[in-house]
């Protein structure tokens, strides 16, 4: 049994005891009322003997409840009622309406007070006294009515007190009923709360058990899970590292490929020198076309374009031939001599292969239009017109030696001799045509040591034709590309050599 249930039952027992005490107090009040009434009769009889000594009243007394003080019995009764009222120990007053356990006390009917008969002994004695004292007649005649009215007043006061007590009892009973009703409601609430608390306690115990199981499982398997997680992270990191390395290798391969392609698109120093000399070739022959009126429709534009790229074509080619004669066309001297070779020509943007392609296109156009043949024919005609009327050569001499070359023809022979020396020096440096390269180089060096003549014109034309037959320029291009690829694949060696 819960403490709340025990408390509620003790409260119900206190209510029953309180009702019993109220009933006992009511019965005691009724008994005291009867004793007061009996005692009042005795007081009336004893007071009749003393009525003669009292002065006669002027008028009859009438009941005045408002001016009369309550009797001592009423005071004692109220004190007893206040002491009899029980106090609830250990239980607070609960204003809960409860069902009454015992029926309430019904108010007792007021006792009917009858007037005393006129033939009572008291009245007989009063009649006898009237014969002795006529002055007190009014007092004697009014004596019995005064005692009955006083008694009636006290009875009325007691009845009123009794009614007040009964009203208080009814009020207390109602409060007790309300307290019992509230106690029952509280019992129901406590019972429901107890059920809910027990359910919550069970749920909490289940949750605690589940948490304990989880903690035990986590304590047992936490290390394995951590190890597995670390292994997964390590594997993921290794996979990422492998992927990064793979991407890095792919990027390096792409960079190498792009570098090779870019290197192929960029001309080295030797190729740039070749481009400059071929531009000088194109600028010279288009200038001669303008001078001799060959292809006049396009000669001016071509001359202007190529002359802008090679403003001093003859001087550049002759200087290159002189270097080839001195043997300074080795690879280690190409970069040093390149500045002197350009003669102030700006080479920015000329290192790409586009420059070589434009030069080759211009040379093919020159061949298709047969510009060189037309220039040679025009110069020959001009020379023939100048030697009209000259004497024939002596007997036994070569007719070709019978005339001297013009200044323009001499410059053309020297230009081609310098070109041939430059080409055969490069062939000798790259190890191409080893059986004839050195002989051809020495031959053209000797040819350039004396002044040009008509025989030199024939020799330079034979030398230019030999270059075309052997494909010397194509061989030189391939050799330069191979050297560039080797430098790209071995950047350390090229750096150390420089």
Automatic annotation (TrEMBL):
<feature type="compositionally biased region" description="Polar residues">
    <location>
        <begin position="80"/>
        <end position="90"/>
    </location>
</feature>
<feature type="compositionally biased region" description="Pro residues">
    <location>
        <begin position="101"/>
        <end position="110"/>
    </location>
</feature>
<feature type="region of interest" description="Disordered">
    <location>
        <begin position="1"/>
        <end position="126"/>
    </location>
</feature>
<dbReference type="InterPro" id="IPR040321">
    <property type="entry name" value="SCD2-like"/>
</dbReference>
<dbReference type="GO" id="GO:0000911">
    <property type="term" value="P:cytokinesis by cell plate formation"/>
</dbReference>
<feature type="coiled-coil region">
    <location>
        <begin position="148"/>
        <end position="196"/>
    </location>
</feature>
<protein>
    <recommendedName>
        <fullName>Ripening-regulated protein</fullName>
    </recommendedName>
</protein>
<keyword id="KW-0175">Coiled coil</keyword>
């Amino acid at each position: 049994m819960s403490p709340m249930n025990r408390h509620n039952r003790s409260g119900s027992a206190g209510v029953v005891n309180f009702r019993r005490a109220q009933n006992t107090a009511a019965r005691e009040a009724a008994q005291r009322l009867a004793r007061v009434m009996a005692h009042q009769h005795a007081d009336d009889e004893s007071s009749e003997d003393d009525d003669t000594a009292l002065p006669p009243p002027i008028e009859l007394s009438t009941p005045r409840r408002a001016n009369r003080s309550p009797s001592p019995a009423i005071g004692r009764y109220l004190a007893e009622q206040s002491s009899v009222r029980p106090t609830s120990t250990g239980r607070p007053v609960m204003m809960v309406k409860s069902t009454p356990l015992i029926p309430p006390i019904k108010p007792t009917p007021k006792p009917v007070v009858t007037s005393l008969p006129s033939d009572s002994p008291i009245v007989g004695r009063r009649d006898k006294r009237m014969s002795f004292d006529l002055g007190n007649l009014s007092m004697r005649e009014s004596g019995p009515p005064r005692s009955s009215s006083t008694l009636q007043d006290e009875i009325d006061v007691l009845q009123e007190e009794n009614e007040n007590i009964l009203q208080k009892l009814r009020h207390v009973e109602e409060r007790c009923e309300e307290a019992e009703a509230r106690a029952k409601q509280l019992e129901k609430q406590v019972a429901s709360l107890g059920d809910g608390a027990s359910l919550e306690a069970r749920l909490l115990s289940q949750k605690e058990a589940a948490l304990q199981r989880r903690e035990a499982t986590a304590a047992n398997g936490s290390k394995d899970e951590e190890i597995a997680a670390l292994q997964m992270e390590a594997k993921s990191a290794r996979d990422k590292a492998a992927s990064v390395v793979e991407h890095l290798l792919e990027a390096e391969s792409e960079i190498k490929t792009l570098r090779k392609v870019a290197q192929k698109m960029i001309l080295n120093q030797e190729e740039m020198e070749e481009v400059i000399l071929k531009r000088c070739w194109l600028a010279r022959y288009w200038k001669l076309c303008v001078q001799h009126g060959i292809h006049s429709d396009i000669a001016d534009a071509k001359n202007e374009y190529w002359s802008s790229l090679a403003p001093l074509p003859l001087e550049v080619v002759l200087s290159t031939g002189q270097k080839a004669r001195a043997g300074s066309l080795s690879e280690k001297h190409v970069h040093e001599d390149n500045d002197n070779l350009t003669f102030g020509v700006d080479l920015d943007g000329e290192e790409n292969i586009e420059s070589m392609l434009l030069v080759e296109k211009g040379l093919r156009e020159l061949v298709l239009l047969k510009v060189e043949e037309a220039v040679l024919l025009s110069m020959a005609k001009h020379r023939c017109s100048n030697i009209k009327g000259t004497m024939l050569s002596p007997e036994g001499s070569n007719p070709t030696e019978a005339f001297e070359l013009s200044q323009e023809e001499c410059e053309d022979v020297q230009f081609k001799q310098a070109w041939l020396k430059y080409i055969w020096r490069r062939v000798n440096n790259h190890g191409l045509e080893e059986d004839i390269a050195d002989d051809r180089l020495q031959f053209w060096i000797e040819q350039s040591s004396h002044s040009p003549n008509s025989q030199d014109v024939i020799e330079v034309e034979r030398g230019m034709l030999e270059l075309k037959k052997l494909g010397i320029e194509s061989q030189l291009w391939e050799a330069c590309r191979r050297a560039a690829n080797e430098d790209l694949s071995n950047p350390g060696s090229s750096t150390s050599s420089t």
